[in-house]
Structures are given as structure tokens and as C-alpha cells.
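Human: I wish I could look at a protein chain and see how it folds. This is the protein in question:
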Amino acid sequence: MAKDKALTAKSSIGAWLKHPVGGPILRDLLAQGGQKESALAPVKLFSLERVAAMSGGQMSQELIDDMVRRANDPSALAAAPAADDDGEDDEDEPPAPPMAAPWVERITPGRFDGKTVIVTGAGSGIGRAVAARVAAEGGKVVAVDISQERLDAAVAEMPGAVAVAGDITSEDSIAKIVAAADGRVDGLANVAGIMDDMTPLHEVSDAVWSRVMAVNVEGTFRLTRAVLPLMLEAGGGSIVNVASEAGLRGSAAGLAYTTSKHAVVGLTKSTSFMYAAKNIRVNAVAPGPVATGIEASFASELGQERVGLAMTILPPIAEAAQLAASITWLLSDDATNVSGVILPSDGGWSAI
């Protein structure tokens, strides 16, 4: 690749990584967040500006402008080492194939009219997208998040939503959540979750194990247990748990997260079976890579080596609203005959 080939915000991540100046800039940015180049494998064909838009505000326009300026600085280009010669002429390399047209969310007016839906993790990411869509489609949302600040910002955009700041591992918080539903719960989206640090079994700390299991399993279990009596009294309801590709395979995360999401799968299937005759549907969505505020960090060389290898075949990263489309469909009456399903919403990763 020629040193004087200009990079822009519209250049692909792959082009940035190949560039003699842009590559080091991007790798340094990754290193500051504890990430390696392999983390960008699913978005190599995306433009830098698209990845920035999916970062949830972590990559500001000022940062992007600065990266472009530094990458095209003549003095930096002159001092940059020559790119590795792989025997191919990068100048004649064909352009990346055009990206498919962006997916556009289409609201279904009235789909949740008269229904009350609890959504955890509603302050950001998938939870926020689910809560916003339920509200836009006429539902009363009880929006739950551990961060009051995130929650306030999210609920400001959701007409009629009720905000409950609390920790789903706390019985006191669960009591507040149920009280905010005012005696009626038609739907529950258990979205809140945390990632582990990609450690294999012999390196997992008690702290990581306990916290991941508490949020991802205990919290889901406790809130669902508290909500089910209201659904039984009402004669029906819909529950959607967020599992993960890590609940379907062993190569997507560390031991703690993988175990927790396998537990969510078991919780989903058992609950679906037990309440099938009570008109309560219970399903789970298994996301693949999604642009959310949950970051994967590697605290293990072995974890980096093994899971990092698997990440090189990830499908393109989805946006939170795409997962919300899958989750709200399962929550709605449109999924009337669907229960006990673990639905991969992963761009085809589960087919690999």
C-alpha cells in the first residue's frame, strides 16, 4: 500500500489496519481499551465512521477527526516503515464489496397497547433498544437499570415509561420493580447482564465467578420468580431471556460467562415446560456480536489465544435495535405459538 494513500472516516477498518500510519493509530486505540486487532475481525469491511456510530459514544467525532489528521500527516507518512511485502500489489487490490443497505427499524403501532412490560438493562444497549421499541409500540415500560444516570437519559426518550434504578440481585430492588408494575406484568425481558474476563477454569477468580453468576443467573431467576405470580393471576404472559452464543457453544467467552448463559438456557427451557399450560410463553434470544456497552477484556493469555482465535470468524456486529426486533417479536402476541425456543439472533454465527 502506498504511503501517501489518504485515509478518511469512510475508509474501511481493513484499510486503516493496512495503512503504515493509520494501522498503528488504530492498534494503539485498541490497546488503550485492553483489546487486540482480532477484536476488529467482524467489522473489517465497515467504515471507521460506522464503527464509531456503533460505539455508543466511546468514539467521538473529535477523536475520528484527529485520527484522520494524524494518519495523513506528511511527516508521519515519511517516517513510517514500509508495509510488509506480501508479494501482492495492494494498489491493485479490489475495493471492499459494498455493504448491504442499512437495516431500518419499522415500528408496529399498537402491538403492545394495554400491556405492561418490564425490561432490565434498560439504560443502555439492547435493553434500552427493547424498552424504546415497546414504548413506541404502545406498551407501558417498567425500565430497570443499575445506573440512575443512564436510566434517566433513556427514559426521557420513552413516553410513559417508569424508571426503577436498582440491582436485580437485590430482593429490595426486585420488590421495587414489581411494585412499579402496579399489579400487572404482561411481559418481562431479562436483558441485564455482564461479561467475564475471558479466563479459563483454572484462572477464574472467585470475584469474577460470583459476580457474573449473580447478575446473569441469580438476577434473572429472582426477578422472574417475583413476576410469575402476577402472570399466573392474569392468565398469561411472555418472558424473554437474553442468553448468548456462549450459551450454545464453548468458544465464545470465558468459563464464568459461558456457564452463566448455559444456565439461562436451562432456566428458559424448564420454565417454558412448567408453565406451558398456563398460557405463559418463555423463550430466549442468543445474540452474537452486538454493539453495546458490554466490553470483553482478556485477563488470560490462554483465554486470549483460544477465544481470540474463535473471534476471527465472527459475523458482522449487529446493532442493538436489531436484537430488540427479535426480542420484541418474542414478547408480542405475534409469537403466539412459540415457547421454549432459544433463538439465535447472530447473523448466522450458530450455523458455522
About this structure: The beta strands are 116-120, 140-145, 162-165, 187-190, 237-242, 280-287, 290-291, 318-319, 342-345. The chain has a mean pLDDT of 86.
